[in-house]
């Protein structure tokens, strides 16, 4: 057979089309046949089996409607950032460094960005080496890169129960086995960790790391106590186990004493720190970072290179300009004022509108309150009812791997106005109240009156400050 | 032709509807029509009046679109639309009404009892729960009367699980039904015009064919045409056509059944079945040699014929 003569083949193609005008853009063939679907399904990697979309995601599609008061978001309020300041910073970048700002940057991130990170971490009492830092595309990428570096399929990750819902799909996509340890109002019950480690050792499983959001946890709003922080760091050291400390909200404290980050207590041997500019500046710039011991960092950098070569240069320049103004801490103080008030408004509304059977956390910082309802209320179904009253929250199930959390919900107070918080909580309280009454009618039980804290059953419930019959 | 594709809205199946709608728009454009996607909201009437489409393709699922609401507006505006009319939509959407209509027409459907919230709140219906157990047995299925995609559907394995299942179902509607659980094969028969398409069998890879399994590639295995004996297939098709007629459907619809030991039982009829990549109707059409674009074209033609038949021209 003759080899195809490429130039003439091209010429013949051109010959058949109308030479006078270029061919129209070619639309892809419609992928509508079920055969196609089967073919793709056969090509999917094993890990996609555990990468799930969910009914909840579809329900969440409704929460985006403008008439819905959404307490389901996790959004910081970016509306108070001064547009003039934004314009001035962008202008300075354009005037001084257009060419560099439009160019690739180093995989680890610019030194100037790391200087900003050192300032932020310094404000919480940490002083890492600049070489130990990598700038990432949001804190989310830092979590992904850490998993990519450390996890083989079947490896164990230990995290809080409930845990950050956004971390669950990352663990799942690396096919990790996730073990959750209950939280109470002092954060993860670290005293249970030792037993869990022993049990895993008996089963021949070695956990790779403990993932924790120790301060103002997402979603529970709780903060790990000093004692537990120290104990966690000791356990990591004695078991040669890494701890991933995810701290997006550390500087957003509205009350109580500041506690040392795990990274500071450990000195950076066994703790990998994950930070972000999302909650103290802007989530839209997608800038986060990780701090890890050098051997781990080397692998993370290789992973980052494979993932996206480098973090956006333009947004790194933006952060640099923003920090050069020297007002970043003032902006955080403004945010703290706003968020503290909104938290207080939400707590007051909860006390007024939620039935006595409900309990909730009283966070000292961060963006979220976690409320727990009687166990017979499934918050995914309740969301459907709440949406009819134009209000939304995140059902607790998203924060658990194993289907627990069905009677809890996450409520965000940072991204909504005072009035929306009051009205939103009133509406949610109303639909809960209706279900509580209905349950009473169904079972013949009169809705229970508030109980004493002493009578609280404990077990795997969160013993919150608010007294009441906690859901199991 | 200018075709308005009604999709989205604020039903709980908004996400699914957006996917169905997008796929229909794509097909319409390939067919050379002008597709006008409308995410249904407060400005729907204004948009329809402004745009004056030749026909509306209703790709909405759940309340507001599948229950006859949008269809009523389209009738007032004189815009021909795809799928069943107002009355059929209202009957299909409401499982309690639908089951009564099916039973009256002699179409097999599992035994059930229906309640509204008032019955429990004010009339002491809770005291009848043990009797229902005797009549329906366990496990039984608790469903909201108007709900789609298995949202709010719970199984109660014993009497203790009924109140919690009711609380979930009442989150979606103020009327619920408790239905006898029929163990068997899950089948769906789509009907276009008056013609049945090949039977699809859904074999979930997980425990049950729930909301998530419905819309994810690879979560459920579909076999079309379903491997059935000739007698079984005929009984299933016959029950489906009878159900379609009993509820007054026109244009297209999908009948969901269980094939149990005692033959087929109709669970529900979907007036506007999903048209996403993983939906059953397009798969059945495909198996019948009807590619998606032809399917869309045919549904449009049926809508226009219906219209022509309903309004005699001078």
| Number of beta-strand segments of chain A | 14
Oligomer: heterodimer
Which structural class best describes the helix and strand composition of chain A? alpha/beta
Beta strand % of chain A: 5-15%
Question: Which fold name corresponds to the CATH topology of the largest domain in chain B?
Answer: D-amino Acid Aminotransferase, Chain A, domain 1
Question: How many strands, what sense, and barrel or not for the largest sheet of chain B?
Answer: 6 strands, antiparallel
Helix and strand composition category of chain B? alpha+beta
Could you explain how this protein is built, in words?
The complex is a heterodimer of chains A (472) and B (314). By secondary structure, chain A is an alpha/beta fold. Chain A folds into 2 domains: 55-75 and 330-445, Aspartate Aminotransferase, domain 1; 103-326, Type I PLP-dependent aspartate aminotransferase-like (Major domain) (Aspartate Aminotransferase, domain 2). Chain A has helices at 6-16, 34-43, 55-63, 83-101, 111-123, 138-150, 168-173, 190-202, 226-239, 262-266, 294-308, 313-324, 328-353, 379-388, 418-443; strands spanning 69-70, 133-137, 156-161, 177-184, 187-188, 207-212, 242-246, 271-276, 287-291, 359-360, 368-372, 391-392, 394-395, 408-412. In chain A, the strands form 3 sheets. In chain A, strands 2-9-8-7-6-3-4-5 form an 8-stranded mixed beta sheet, with helices on both faces. In chain A, a hairpin with a 2-residue loop joins strand 4 and strand 5 (187-188). Chain A starts with 5 loop residues before the first helix and ends in a 29-residue tail after the last helix. Residues 1-17 and 448-472 of chain A have low confidence and may be disordered. The two termini of chain B are 22 Å apart. Chain B contains 12 helices and 13 strands. Chain B is α+β, with helices and mostly antiparallel strands and 314 residues long. The mean pLDDT of chain B is 87. In chain B, the strands form 3 sheets. In chain B, strands 8, 9, 10, 11, 12 and 13 form a 6-stranded antiparallel beta sheet that branches. Chain B has helices at 14-30, 44-51, 69-77, 86-93, 95-104, 117-122, 129-136, 162-169, 211-214, 230-246, 280-287, 292-310; strands spanning 2-7, 34-39, 55-58, 112-116, 140-144, 154-156, 175-180, 185-192, 195-196, 200-204, 220-223, 252-260, 263-270. The A-B interface holds A 27, 30-35, 37, 40-41, 44, 48-49, 52-55, 57-59, 61-62, 65, 376-378, 381-382, 384-385, 387, 435, 437-439, 441-444 and B 10-16, 18, 23, 26-27, 30, 41, 117, 120-121, 126, 151-152, 162-164, 166-172, 210-212, 215-218, 222, 224, 277-278, 282-283, 286-287, 291-293.
